[in-house]
Structure formats: structure tokens, C-alpha cells
Design a protein that fits this description.
The complex is a heterodimer. Chain A is an alpha/beta fold. Chain A is built from twelve helices and eight strands. In chain A, strand 7, helix 8 and strand 8 form a beta-alpha-beta unit. Chain B starts with a strand and ends with a helix. Helix content of chain B is 41%, strand content 18%. In chain B, helix 2 packs parallel to helix 3. Chain B has a five-stranded parallel β-sheet with strand order 2-1-3-4-5, sandwiched between helices. Classes of the chains: A alpha/beta, B alpha/beta. Chains A and B meet through helix 2, strand 3 and strand 4 of A and helix 1, strand 2 and helix 2 of B. The complex binds cobalamin (B12), guanosine-5'-triphosphate and magnesium ion (MG).
């Protein structure tokens, strides 16, 4: 396809249009992804999550600049929530990354979560692949650590970084339950604020309690992202994690698990759509539901019968 | 599932951002995906952000008086980057006498103080090629 050729020849416009095609599920999206697939698998993927306003975008901006100094090209996928009321969104991550616009070795794409739960991970994964095929060495995915789907996305990264800030009070409890266990590294941003030492101790204690973390102990870095302080140490930690993953053979395992998840999700998606179209949205199905309501039939044999017909 | 994407940006040194934020929120509430890029941007930064985010609309806000040079510059750079089907609109403190010149330079519509945001939403809905 022409768009794929142009993308592989570093057309930024082609990359941008290709991401739109997958995001909007245009007719040519599957064809684009099919042709792009052999050219993927080269980029290193970093997931960044944390509470709203923690400084994730400011940090991403700093990390991208530091990677550039180290000779790497950087793709960024920045995800913000869609408003459930209007379906619209304000995508505000880019505001912290406007200096990056004059660098051809960087490409930033803002994405809204839109409606679908599983859909988001797949679309993010596709956007990452497109940037990978384009030739970006490192791809950073930023999401707010609030919903399960956002956390799922970060989990699929090679290295996941959790950003926390001092002074969150009991919020640390909520985070503990959700995103703390996914962190391969922790960054305490806004370290210019009071409570940094206390937060550091809390995270350390929590990590002590996690028996799974024996081979790799997540480092805790401190940054003041708004002043560009501490960024180099964060990259050093990411590199250390990457080396650990490579040497231990974990990287290949993580990537195999990611591919398995992706294909499983694609299969589920295809089967769901098939069932919706050919079973759920038929008049016979309405009739079945009516009979179920009046208890003329029961659902277990209905399901057996339909599955027998559809998936034989 | 295609959403209309709008880049809201302020070129130049103007720091009046209230209007741009009001417009950004109104567009979000109308169901658009709004990329808000903040103040003090160069036309090049704005055009490149428009390319990377593949927006349908570039919405420029200026209250400082520099619109006659900065708005057309953005249009020019968008064209240079191959973004030929982007709708460019503007708003802020813009004298009526300047509006014909801006339109001739490719700014499709200009919205001045007091404009109800619903007019802006309507204009976008009617003029974006879906
Ligand atoms: C509030 C205000 C300020 C605030 C700004 C706060 C902020 N963060 O925004 C403060 C006090 C900081 C300020 C400072 C200055 N200001 Co002042 N300010 C105003 C004032 C009174 C109102 C602007 C406003 O917020 N309106 C409310 C918003 C909602 O309306 P709006 O921006 O016009 O937006 C509407 C439309 O224009 C349109 N729109 C706007 N943008 C866009 C974009 C798109 C894409 C679309 C579709 C529509 C759209 O839709 C909006 C909704 O209807 C205006 C006078 C006026 N009546 O406009 C002067 C005014 C803009 N300021 C002026 C000046 C000179 C200054 C200063 C230079 C003063 C000084 N010497 O220090 C500084 C410069 C600040 C800077 N850094 O750039 C002049 C500009 C003169 C000019 N254009 O030639 C004005 C016009 C006052 C005047 N009559 O002299 N200002
Ligand atoms: N004091 C202080 N402020 C910071 C620091 N880093 C970022 N900020 C500020 O924190 C605010 C939020 O920063 P963002 O980078 O937008 O945070 P975010 O986590 O990406 O926010 P969301 O994407 O909205 O969840 C901005 O005003 C930043 O300037 C820091 O180290 N110290
Ligand atoms: Mg952010």
C-alpha cells in the first residue's frame, strides 16, 4: 500500500494518517497493520502511569529530550480520558511537550480513551506498532492510572514506570491497591515538595512486602520534572531494567505474553462481533429471550445449541 | 467511529488564554476531541502538532493584535506539510477591517468577543469534511 511505503520512508504525514485509520477503524486499517507487522518488534516500549497531575507529561517531555541526547528517536502516545457525558475530550498532555515539535526524531500522538474498554489497548498497541515500523527506537505510552484499561495498557510495556507525588495523603492506599504492583520502577516527582522522604519510605516498605520482586528490585528515583532535575537517573534505571530483562530472558517472555494477549483479544473481538451480528441482532434471538422470560425454556441449553451451531 | 479533532492554539507572545480555554471546553462539551496546546507557540510548533495529531480543525486564538502575520503563517506551514484539508478558524480581539484579509489568506471564519460558543460548534460541524 502506498501509505505503508510512505510511512516506512519516514513520512510523518503517512504515520499520522495511519494512526487515524486504526483509531477510527477505517476500512484500510487492517490492511495497513498487516503490511506493517513484519517491520515491527524493534522498539523498546516504556509505559508511564500515575495519578492525575503527577507530572507524567512533563516527565515524558524530559525523558524524550534525554533519549535524544543519547541518540535515540522517540515516539510518544499520550492518552487522556474521554468525557462520558459528551463523548468529547480535552487532550492536554501535548501542552508539556511543545518544545519537542521542532525535533524530527520525535513524534507525539494524543489519543482519547473513547468508549471501548478492550478497544483502547488494541488501538494503543497498533499506534505503538506504527511508530515502531516508522523507526522510533523508544516508544513512551502515557496514561492516567485510574481505570483498569489504562493500567492494562501500561502492563503491556517492556518497562512500566509508576509516577507518584508527595502529599497525596491516603491516596497512596488507593494506589497501592491498583498500580503499585505493576511498577518496574518508581519515580517520585515533585520532589521539591514536602513529604518526599516519607513517601520514599512508604514505597520501600510496600516493596518489601511483595515477595515476587526478588530478581528485580524496583528502583525509586526522585525528580523535579518541571525543572528537568533527576531525569538522567530515571533513564539509567530504565536502561538497567532493560538489561536485566535481556540478560534474564524475561524480555522475550514478556513479549511472547504480549503477543498472546493481543491475538487472544483479536480473536475474542472477532468472535464477539460475529455473535452480535449473526445471533444477538436477529429476530429469532428476540424470540428466544421472550421464551426465557416466560420460562418456556432455560438459558443453558440455548447457549449450548447456539455455540454448537456457531463454533462448530 | 470518527471523532472531529480540533487543535486549539495561541501563536505568538499573547498570554490571554481565557477565551481559548472557554472555546476548548465548549468544543469538548460538543463531543469534539480537543488538543489544547497552551500559549506562546510558534506557527511551526502549531503546524507540526496539527500534523502529528491529524486534526480536522486548527483553531487559533489571539487578542494581542498580531493576527495579520501569525494566522496566515500557520495556514502556509500547514500547506507546506501537506495538510491540505484542515479547516483553519480564528478568534479573539480582531478588528472587523482585518477579517477580509484573513479570509483571503485561508482563515475560513473569524469569531470576535461576545460570540456564543454554540456558533463556533455549528460552524465546525457544518464545515468539516467528515
Ligand atoms: C482579561 C484580560 C486580560 C487578563 C488576561 C487573563 C487571561 N489569562 O486570559 C490580563 C489582566 C492578564 C490581561 C493582560 C494584558 N492585556 Co488584556 N484584556 C483582558 C480583557 C479585559 C478580556 C479578555 C477576556 O478574557 N475575555 C473573555 C474571553 C472569554 O473572551 P475572548 O478571549 O474574546 O474569546 C471569545 C471570542 O473572542 C472568541 N474566541 C477567542 N479565541 C478564539 C479562538 C477560536 C479558534 C475561536 C473559534 C473563537 C475564539 O470566542 C470567545 C468566546 O466568545 C480584554 C478586553 C476585551 N474586552 O476583550 C483585554 C485586552 C485583550 N488586553 C489588552 C492588553 C493590551 C493587555 C496587556 C498587554 C496590558 C499590559 N499593558 O500589560 C496585558 C498582556 C497580557 C499578556 N501576557 O499577553 C488589550 C489588547 C489590545 C489589542 N489587541 O490591541 C485588550 C483588548 C484591552 C484593550 N481594549 O486595550 N488582560
Ligand atoms: N512543583 C512541581 N510541579 C511540577 C513538577 N513536575 C510537573 N509539575 C507541574 O504539575 C502540573 C501537572 O503536570 P503534567 O505533566 O501535566 O501532569 P500529568 O501527570 O501529565 O497530568 P495528567 O496527564 O493530566 O494526569 C503542571 O503544572 C506541571 O508544571 C515538579 O517536579 N514539581
Ligand atoms: Mg499528562
Amino acid at each position: 500500500m502506498e501509505i505503508v511505503e510512505r510511512l516506512l520512508n519516514h513520512s510523518r504525514l503517512a504515520l499520522s494518517k495511519a494512526i487515524t485509520a486504526v483509531e477510527n477503524e477505517y476500512d484500510d486499517a487492517v490492511k495497513i497493520m498487516t503490511e506493517i507487522y513484519p517491520h515491527t518488534g524493534n522498539a523498546y516500549v516504556l509505559g508511564i502511569t500515575g495519578p492525575p497531575g503527577a507530572g507524567k507529561s512533563t516527565l515524558t517531555d524530559g525523558l524524550a529530550k534525554e533519549y535524544r541526547k543519547r541518540g535515540k528517536t522517540v515516539g510518544i502516545v499520550a492518552i487522556d480520558p474521554t468525557s462520558p457525558y459528551s463523548g468529547g475530550a480535552i487532550l492536554g498532555d501535548r501542552i508539556r511537550m511543545m518544545d519537542l515539535m521542532s525535533d524530527e526524531g520525535i513524534f507525539v500522538r494524543s489519543m482519547a480513551t473513547r468508549g471501548s474498554l478492550g478497544g483502547l489497548s488494541q488501538k494503543t498497541g497498533d499506534a505503538v506498532k506504527l511508530m515502531d515500523a516508522f523507526g522510533m527506537d523508544v516508544i513512551i505510552v502515557e496514561t492516567v492510572g485510574v481505570g483498569q484499561s489504562e493500567v492494562d495498557i501500561v502492563k503491556t510495556a517492556d518497562t512500566s514506570m509508576v509516577v507518584v507525588i508527595p502529599g497525596m495523603g491516603d491516596d497512596i492506599q488507593a494506589i497501592k491497591a491498583g498500580i503499585l504492583e505493576i511498577g518496574d520502577l518508581f519515580t517520585i516527582n515533585k520532589a521539591d515538595r514536602e513529604g518526599t522522604d516519607k513517601l520514599n519510605i512508604e514505597i520501600e516498605m510496600m516493596l518489601e512486602l511483595n515477595p515476587e520482586r526478588v530478581a528485580w528490585r524496583p528502583p525509586i528515583n526522585r525528580t523535579i520534572a518541571s525543572k528537568g532535575i533527576g531525569i538522567e537517573a530515571v533513564i539509567d534505571s530504565i536502561e538497567a531494567h532493560k538489561n536485566y530483562l535481556i540478560e534474564s530472558g524475561r524480555l522475550a517472555e514478556i513479549r511472547r505474553a504480549r503477543i498472546k494477549n493481543e491475538v487472544t483479544a483479536m480473536l475474542n473481538d472477532r468472535v464477539n462481533r460475529y455473535i452480535d451480528k449473526n445471533v444477538v441482532e436477529t429476530p429469532e434471538f428476540e424470540e428466544t429471550v421472550r421464551k426465557l422470560q416466560t420460562r418456556e425454556i432455560e438459558p443453558y441449553s440455548v447457549v449450548d445449541k447456539i455455540v454448537g451451531n456457531v463454533l462448530k | 467511529m470518527a471523532n472531529i479533532r480540533v487543535l486549539v492554539a495561541k501563536p505568538g507572545l499573547d498570554g490571554h488564554d481565557r477565551g481559548a480555554k472557554v472555546v476548548a471546553r465548549a468544543l469538548r462539551d460538543a463531543g469534539f476531541e480537543v488538543i489544547y496546546t497552551g500559549i506562546r507557540l510558534t506557527p511551526e510548533q502549531i503546524a507540526e502538532a496539527a500534523l502529528q495529531d491529524d486534526v480536522n480543525v486548527v483553531a487559533l486564538s489571539l487578542l494581542s493584535g498580531a493576527h495579520n502575520t501569525l494566522f496566515p503563517k500557520v495556514v502556509e506551514l500547514l500547506k507546506e506539510k501537506g495538510l491540505t484539508d484542515v479547516l483553519v478558524i480564528g478568534g479573539g480581539v480582531i478588528p472587523a477591517a482585518d477579517i477580509p484579509g484573513l479570509k483571503a489568506a485561508g482563515i475560513k471564519e473569524v469569531f470576535t468577543p461576545g460570540t456564543p460558543t454554540s456558533d463556533i460548534v455549528k460552524f465546525i460541524n457544518e464545515n468539516v469534511k467528515a
